[in-house]
Write a sequence for this structure.
């Protein structure tokens, strides 16, 4: 995921949320600090975006101990499509 994390998207861009969700699903231990390092987002932004992932996209994310766990991508977002989106932008 390192290539995707180098691209910064403007505030309000849904790709920021999608990149965060992808990081949560692919990292071994997606703690708040690790997600901040991976995405370049502030910790409070990540906490706000986790709520947006749930409310706006239907993605099931919970904090279990220090790590965030993505349980389900929901009815709209598909992980394979998100990976393709970011792979296309990295090339």
């Amino acid at each position: 995921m390192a290539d995707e994390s180098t691209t910064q998207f403007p505030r309000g861009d849904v790709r920021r949320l999608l990149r965060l969700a992808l990081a949560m699903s692919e990292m071994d231990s997606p703690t708040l600090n690790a997600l901040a390092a991976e995405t370049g987002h502030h910790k409070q932004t990540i906490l706000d975006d986790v709520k947006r992932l749930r409310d706006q996209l239907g993605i099931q994310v919970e904090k279990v101990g220090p790590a965030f766990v993505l349980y389900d991508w929901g009815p709209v977002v598909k992980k394979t499509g998100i990976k393709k989106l970011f792979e296309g932008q990295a090339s």
Summary: The mean pLDDT is 87. The first strand starts at residue 60 and ends at 64. The chain is about 55% helix and 10% strand.
